[in-house]
Description:
The chain is built from nine helices and ten strands. By secondary structure, it is an alpha/beta fold. A hairpin with a 2-residue loop joins strand 2 and strand 3. The chain starts with a helix and ends with a helix. 27% of the residues are buried.
Amino acid sequence: MGILERIKEIEAEMARTQKNKATEYHLGQLKAKIAKLRTQLLEPPKGSSGGGDGFEVTKFGHGRVALIGFPSVGKSTLLTMLTGTHSEAASYEFTTLTCIPGIIHYNDTKIQLLDLPGIIEGASEGKGRGRQVISVAKSSDLVLMILDASKSEGHRQILTKELEAVGLRLNKRPPQIYFKRKKTGGISFNSMIPLTHVDEKLCYQILHEYKIHNAEVLFREDATVDDLIDVIEGNRKYIKCVYVYNKIDVVGIDDVDKLARQPNSLVISCNLQACYILCLLYQLMS
């Protein structure tokens, strides 16, 4: 059975399992197993030199911003408007097939903007060019998630899920958990505050899943099982994300107002050249 099949099997088991006090230890172990498998999924094949058909570009300027979104949401048009760099735009999907960089000049600041190919559901599992796109996103300082204002909110949830599946944590800070492996001494578990999501037994079981038998763990906040797994994995990237809703000229004013009031969200229309994010980019990355 391949890695993807094992992941889907565990996800199905988690979906079947009722969430209560009696099953929280079992669910915690299943989450740890999925995290380990997803990490294996991102590793290069054995015997590979690490190279591949990626499209990474050299970092330039004071910061890097990645444009992430489904096909045909206006990423290429936005890049052209903000940087003057030509990126082919058309009415059909997957117009952009590689990474196209552009530079925003704001006073004495240079910000590199990357137009990435559209990703689809299942990108974290290798569908389309999802892995390459997400790899470039992980090297960025800010993610602009470009969304179609006329489409359902489900697109935002799908993209967030795909990015989180490969270790990107959007608009979150690292968990306040101290974790250190040791050679001897067993597991030392302590907390500075009362814990409601994780107890000593669950922590031991998750560490055992990772074959860690000697470690020091200190909770400085009431963190969750997912937070503990992220700390143990140690390969998560915590990055700012701005949700940019394009094509607001095709929806009603009430919908525009609702989208604009959501946290970390902007509403624009490339068609009407209504893009006011230069100043915001500078403020976010300064």
